[in-house]
Amino acid sequence: MKVGVIGASGYTGGELLKILGAHPKFNLSYIAAGSGAGALISDLHPHLSYFQDQRFEATEIARANTCDLIFLALPHGESAKIVNQIESSVKVVDLGADFRLSSAALWEKYYGGSHAGKWSYGLPEIKGNREIISQSSRVANPGCYATAIILSLAPFVESKVINQGDITVVAASGTTGAGRSPKVSLLASEIMNSLTSYKFGGVHQHTPEIEEQLESISKQEVKISFTPILAPMPRGILATITAVTDLKSTSDLYEIAKNYFKDEDFVEILDPKIGKLPRTSSLIGSNKMEMAVAFDSHTSRLVISSALDNLGKGAAGQAVQNANLMNGIGEDEGLVKIGIGI
Fold it and tell me: Which phi and psi angles does 141 have, rounded to 5°?
């Protein structure tokens, strides 16, 4: 199967190339980068030495239309500019935000510009999504924070054991989540030995995506207060999520999560009896999410800790998982469940 990546010069694009380069069923035939066209792939992604002297191509719709499957790893707002020119016979996974939201009003509020529409939402572990993705030719890959938060809360909004109108999330992400464009705030001298919040005050663009998806599960209004943190590490997400619950034991909360994900290979619920907690370093390079739950008896709140690789399960790994489903091949083809560790 001939596969192309448009926007391959960024961090997510590089992770896609790493996974696809070793994929047993996908043949990388088109690798494009807008301003990076003509540059050696290995100059921007030195770890991808197996591309040797290959260079990034220009972004050309004619070349995209020679593929069976295209991954769009472009900045928000850019996919919508070109996707209508891609032939309907070419399957597309968009890793940007352009087709994640149903609401035009929320798109305009959080992103600005015209709303491009809504595609099938590519989070297979949510009940019912796998079948929809498998029948789709256009899939919107979730945001990295959104993946961690939606998966963490899905079992509990489905079972209606928490106050869905008052959910608090504080989550830290590595610097690759901000993209590859040079920014003073991302210089090593600025971020080393420091933590800082950003998009402070409930304005992060993943907020409506998270609420919309959780509401589709629970059929009730969901409200989250989400504070993101920039962490001094290249990649990984660690989220802490709390909500008031009527359940009074950690074991009951653990069983709800364990049962929801019992057949899932890429989500692991850590047993509270063992006492292990999610670590970002354990998941780097994998398509896996780990989560732990506890009951805070002092405040009667559910507490969730979840971790994943923002470039793996939060982006490129998830995109390949969706593409596998869209093409009727093994969902785990080309993907790994064990991170590289320290």
Answer: -70, 135
